[in-house]
UniProtKB/TrEMBL annotation:
Family: Belongs to the cytochrome P450 family.
Span list, region Disordered: 446-473
TM helices/strands, residue ranges: 273-295, 421-439
Keywords: Heme, Iron, Membrane, Metal-binding, Monooxygenase, Oxidoreductase, Signal, Transmembrane, Transmembrane helix
InterPro entries in the cross-refs: Cyt_P450, Cyt_P450_CS, Cyt_P450_E_grp-I, Cyt_P450_sf, Cytochrome_P450_fung
Pathways per UniProt: Secondary metabolite biosynthesis
Protein name (Swiss-Prot/TrEMBL): Cytochrome P450
Cofactor: heme
Protein species of origin: Hohenbuehelia grisea
């Protein structure tokens, strides 16, 4: 019906058959959306259109289409749709979901300028010391890996954003990051599914008072507000007294030069909270994915360990200065980002004006989804895409010379501004763990190996559900190296 309405317009992009009244409402999945969209793309192509009760959604299933639209035409594709449930939860102000415009530019500038590759260099010692602490704790307490990874990412981002040191376990910032992680990984309730993006979908909008999502939001709002208010107020008090240590927030308060108004302060509160929220959750998930990959692929683990041992020898630990000498480890980090993108559908963009692409009509206001999950499985780019294979990125003839999966960080003017910090953090943690620990399958009380099948959470962010594994020291000498390095850095 829609197709015939505008005679001179090119057709809409193809998609699965729709109901004449409610459009695709019934076929839009609420689970494993990335896989379902990718399957549709096999039939209908890499630019898909679905419509539910009048709301247009365009799904991009290839890096080419996403680059053409979200990057090359970014002035039209950098808006965001509204996320009513996330708003109800109190994430405000919030760069990730902010509509395109002046306030977006202000927030983006604050975050971007603090996380360029260069701006991240001074944080490398912090990342390294935290990675060594993490690795030593893993050797003693491997079953606690999830909380230890969460501690690492929280400790790094809290120091950078607010200047506070975060101790192991039960620290209030670790708890805040865990609350945030819980909320963002909840499937239906937190507005994480694309169906929730279409507020008029289903029988009730998901934020309708009394629905499950609205009750969830009311129940958890305090935790998100606390995350915004508490560290901000603490730094602001220290700043007013002249005792604040270096941090993103202190540096930005300094730029205001005493001429701040309430809106400026609200913006700085939002920008630092956003660094904390976006920075802790994603990197933490990627570390759990790394562990899962290592449990399942001892051969790949051994190859990375051999590379590290060749470069460092037995008497020292790897450091950032070794990065260029460890091509396989580099590929391993990149393969973690491709094998299971932690934000499987990216963060939806919204197109502000109607557009025509490859002779297909894209209506104004369409929600545009980059299906990162599907792009990672694109067989025209990645051979045997479901397998975990770091060598795919190595030059031929050793590897397949496949392109890095930069899509993991999104596209265009909304692409992840934290990627340099994230990549450095992931690298130093992975290389340190590989240098000092052996990761293997756990055994049950009868000594049988416990097999681990990947199984992931289903929210806006996605991570492996808890799985058992065994983390053991590779040698006493390496454990001593860790202990000595930690003692030296805390002097
Ligand atoms: C493994 C780590 C990470 C991954 C995979 C990741 C991935 C992403 C993705 C896919 C997006 C959406 C891009 C788009 O809309 O096209 C995004 C946005 C964003 N990320 Fe990250 N991210 C990571 C770490 C970080 C870190 C450490 C920070 C801390 C500064 C951060 C801050 C942000 C912010 C503020 C946005 C919103 C940007 C905007 O809307 O303009 N991320 N990230």
């Amino acid at each position: 019906k829609l197709r015939s309405r505008h005679r001179h317009q090119p057709p809409l992009p193809p998609g699965p058959p729709a109901d004449p009244l409610i459009g695709h409402l019934r076929v839009i999945p609420t689970k494993d959306q990335g896989s379902v969209f990718h399957k549709w793309a096999q039939t209908y192509g890499d630019v898909l259109y679905v419509n539910a009760l009048g709301r247009s959604m365009v799904i991009l299933d290839s890096i080419t289409a996403a680059t053409d639209l979200l990057e090359k035409r970014s002035s039209n594709y950098s808006d965001r749709p509204r996320f009513p449930v996330i708003e109800l939860l109190g994430y405000d102000p919030n760069l990730v979901l902010m509509p395109y415009g002046d306030r977006f530019r202000k927030h983006r500038k604050i975050i971007h300028s603090n996380f360029t590759k260069r701006a991240c260099l001074p944080w490398r010692d912090l990342q390294k010391d935290s990675a060594y602490n993490l690795a030593l704790s893993l050797l003693d307490n491997g079953e606690n890996y999830d909380r230890l990874f969460s501690w690492f990412t929280t400790a790094v981002i809290t120091k950078i954003a607010y200047g506070f040191d975060v101790k192991f376990e039960d620290d209030e910032y670790v708890q805040m990051a865990e609350h945030n992680g819980f909320v963002l990984n909840e499937p239906e309730t937190a507005g994480g599914t694309v169906v929730d993006l279409l507020p008029f979908l289903r029988h009730f909008p998901s934020w309708f008072p009394g629905t499950q999502a609205a009750s969830f939001a009311r129940e958890w709002r305090w935790a998100i507000r606390r995350l915004y208010d508490l560290p901000f107020e603490k730094v602001k008090r220290e700043w007013d007294r002249g005792t604040a240590g270096p941090s993103l927030l202190a540096a930005e308060l300094a730029k205001l030069d005493g001429k701040e108004n309430d809106e400026d302060l609200e913006d700085l509160k939002g920008a630092s909270a956003m660094a904390f929220i976006a920075g802790a959750e994603t990197t933490w998930s990627a570390l759990v994915i790394f562990l899962l990959a290592m449990v399942r692929h001892p051969d790949i683990q051994r190859r990375a360990q051999e590379e590290i041992d060749r470069v460092t020898g037995p008497d020292r630990l790897p450091d950032f200065s070794d990065q260029n000498s460890l091509p396989f480890v580099e590929c391993l980090v990149q393969e973690v980002l491709r094998w299971h993108p932690v934000v499987p559908l990216g963060i939806p963009h919204r197109c502000m004006e109607e557009d025509i692409y490859r002779n297909m009509f894209i209506p104004k206001g369409s929600i545009v989804i980059a299906n990162l999950h599907g792009m990672a499985l694109d067989e025209s780019v990645y051979s045997d895409p479901t397998s975990f294979n770091p060598s795919r990125f190595l030059p031929k003839p050793i590897g397949n010379e496949e392109p890095l999966f930069q899509a993991a960080f999104g596209f265009g003017r909304r692409a992840c501004p934290g990627m340099h910090l994230a990549l450095a953090g992931l690298w130093i943690v992975m290389v340190t763990i590989l240098a000092t620990a052996d990761i293997s399958k756990a055994t049950d009380k009868d000594g049988n190996t416990i097999e681990v099948e990947p199984d992931y959470t289903n929210g806006l962010a996605s991570r492996p559900k808890p799985f058992p594994c065994r983390i053991q020291s590779r040698s006493e000498q390496r454990r001593d190296l860790l202990a000595k390095a930690i003692a030296a850095s805390s002097k």
